[in-house]
# Entry
Amino acid sequence: MNNFNFHNPVSIIFGKNTIAQLSDILPQNEKIMLLYGGGSIKRNGVYDQVTKALKGFDYVEFSGIEPNPSYETMMEAYEIAKQENVTFLLPVGGGSVIDGTKFLAAALCLPEGVESWGILQGTVPVEKAMPLGCVLTLPATGTEMNGNSVVSRKSTCEKLSFGSLLVMPKFSILDPEVCFSLPDKQIANGIVDAFIHVMEQYLTFPNNTPLQDLWAESILRVLIDTAPKVMSDHTNYDAMANFMWSATMALNGIISRGAIEDWSTHIIGHELTALHGIDHGRTLAIVLPGNMNIRRAVKGKKIMQYGERIWGITQGSDNEKIDKTIEKTVEFFESLGVPTRLSAYNLGKETCLEVAQRLANRGVVNFGEAGDITQEVVVKILEDRI
Amino acid sequence: MNNFNFHNPVSIIFGKNTIAQLSDILPQNEKIMLLYGGGSIKRNGVYDQVTKALKGFDYVEFSGIEPNPSYETMMEAYEIAKQENVTFLLPVGGGSVIDGTKFLAAALCLPEGVESWGILQGTVPVEKAMPLGCVLTLPATGTEMNGNSVVSRKSTCEKLSFGSLLVMPKFSILDPEVCFSLPDKQIANGIVDAFIHVMEQYLTFPNNTPLQDLWAESILRVLIDTAPKVMSDHTNYDAMANFMWSATMALNGIISRGAIEDWSTHIIGHELTALHGIDHGRTLAIVLPGNMNIRRAVKGKKIMQYGERIWGITQGSDNEKIDKTIEKTVEFFESLGVPTRLSAYNLGKETCLEVAQRLANRGVVNFGEAGDITQEVVVKILEDRI
# Structure
C-alpha cells in the first residue's frame, strides 16, 4: 500500500425531502448565486423546492449552464457574480452545473488580471475559492463529493480538468426522488460513468490494497444489480438511492487511497466529447473496452481479478479470461442502451488518429498507470473500438 | 435506506514516516499539549519522532493516561491545560489517549462552573471544543476518525460515552510501522474491536443498503484474512497497514449511513470493563456471541447473510445456520487468543445479574436496534456466555 492522504470534508445530506434543509444550512448574510442548467429543474419541481427554501436569503440566479459546461458560459456567470457581489455559490443540477460552478468559484478569487482559463491549463494555481454548496439532481460524476471539475472551451474545442480541495462543496444535498424524472439516457450514462470511475481506480496494478479492492468491487456489484431496477422503474426509491450513493462513493477518493490510479480512459474520452460532442459517460463506454484489450499486458492481472469476482469468469487461459471479461463489460454497457463502438457515432479511423494527435500536441504522452500509453497506443485503443 | 447525514472532515495522513509531517500540519502560534499514556511511546521511538517534529513549537506534556481513560486523570490534565493556557491538543497513543483527550477538549471549553462529567452523562451539551490532532499508535477503536469518546470514572465504577462532531480530530497520522512493537494481546484486542464495530452497524435488520452491507463485509473479510498475517509477524508492513486502515474505516460512519445500528454489545461490554477491568475488545468478544444467540429472532436474517457471505455457511435449517455462524465467529476470536466466555475471567451468574441491574439503574432498558433488550434479556445474553 502506498502512503496517502485522505481529507473529504463535504457534508452530505441524503434522502427524501432534504432540499428544504437548505434554509437551515445556507450561510446567513451572504449574497448567493443560484446556478442551474437548461430548465429541467423547473419542470421536475426542484426549482420550486429550492426557491422556497431560499425565502429570506439574498440571491441572484444564473441559468443556461450546458452539458459539458463551457468556459464561455461560466465567464458570463463570472461577470454577473462580480457585478452582484456574490459571496456564495449554489449550483443545482448534475455534474455539468456543479463542475462549471467549481471553476467559477476558483475564477472569482483569482488576483485581478489573471486569465482564469489557466486554472484548467494547469498554469494558474488555485489558492482561494468562493464557498459553494450543491443540490445534486443526477447521480453520475461524483463531483458532489470531490474537488474535481471539467470544463470545455468552445472556441478551441478543448475539454480540460482541474482539481482542488478548495472547491469541494461545503455541503451536498442528495434527494433520490428528484431523479425520478430523469430520462433513461441520463440514468444509463450515469451508471456507466460511475462504473468507469471505479474502474480507473481499481483496474490497475495490484498494490496490496485488499479493502480498497473489495470496496471498489462492491460499488461495481451494486451498480450492476441496481441498473435494471432503476432503468425499468425510475420511481423505485431504494434502487435510485443505492445508485445515487454508489455514484457518490465511486469518486470521493476513498476507494483509491494507497492504490494505483489510471484515468487514461477519461483522458482519451474527453477528446471524443470535445471533438464530437458525445456524452461523457458514452465516451468512456467506448474507450474502456479498448483500453482493457490493448493494455492487457499492464492490466491483465487485475482484469482477471475483476472478471472472476464480478462476472464469475474462472475458465480458460489468461487471454481467454480477459477476452470474456471485456465481453461481459461491453454487454453490460450495451444492455443499458449505451453503445461501445465509434461506428455507432459514424466515426472511424480518422477520429482515432485525430484524438491521438490532439493529445500529443498538448504533451499528453506516456500516460496511464504504467506510463505506457504512447500516441501509437491511443490509436490502437480507439481503433479497437471502431 | 433511511435518510442520513455524513460529514467526516478528519484529515488522514497514512503511511511510513508520516509523523515528521507534524511540523508542517500543526498550527503555528498555539500552546500545544502533548498527551500520552504509560510510556510505550518512549520505548518504541514514537516519542522521539513526535518531539523532533515539535521543535520550535511551544508545548507542554501530559503523560499517564491509562487504558480506559479516567475522568480523574483527565481532570489533572484539565488543570495543567488551564494553567498553561493550552490551545491545541496533541494526543499520541491508542484509543484511550485519544478518547480521554476528546473529553478534555470538550471540558476545557465549558462555561465556568459547569461540571464536566455531565458531558458523559448526557446532561451537558458540547457546544465548543478545543481543536485536537492525533498520532495513532494502536489500530482498534476508530476514534482517530470520528467524534466518539468513552471515559471511565473510577470513583463510581462508571464507563460512559459521548459523541460530538466538535471533537473530531483536525488530523490523524497513521503510520503502520509504529505498530510493529505492539504486544500480541493489543493487536488481537484491536482486531476483535474493529470486527465488532462493524458488526454493531451491520448485523441489524436489513434496510436495503446493499453497498453499506458489502462494505461492512469487506472490512470483516480483510480483518479475517489479515489477522493471522499480522499476528504471526508484526513487522509485515502491508498486513499492518491493511489492519490499520480497516480499523479506521470500521468506525468513521461510512458503513452505517442509511442502515440500522445496534451498539448493544458495546453497552453491555462497557459494564464488564467498568466492573471487572476486562479489556474493551475482550468484553465485546464475550457479549457478541450471546447477543447473536439470544436475539436470533431480531438478528436472524442478517446473521444468515453474514454466515453465508463471510463463512460460506449455506447448509441446514435457519437455526442450524445461525448456530454454525456463531460458532465460526467464536472460533475466530479464540484463534486470536481472545476468550469468549465469562468463566475465562472467573465470572459467573452474579456478574450477569449485576450488569443488568446496573444498566437498569441508569435507565438503560429496551435498547438494541429493535428496543427489545430488557433487563431480563441482558441477563440471558450474559448467562449464555458463562
The interface with chain A takes residues 1-16, 18, 208-211, 214-215, 218-219, 221-222, 225-226, 238, 241-242, 245-246, 249, 254, 257-258 of chain B (CB under 8 Å). Residues 210-232 of chain B form the longest helix (23 residues). DSSP finds 15 helices and eight strands in chain B. The mean pLDDT of chain B is 97.
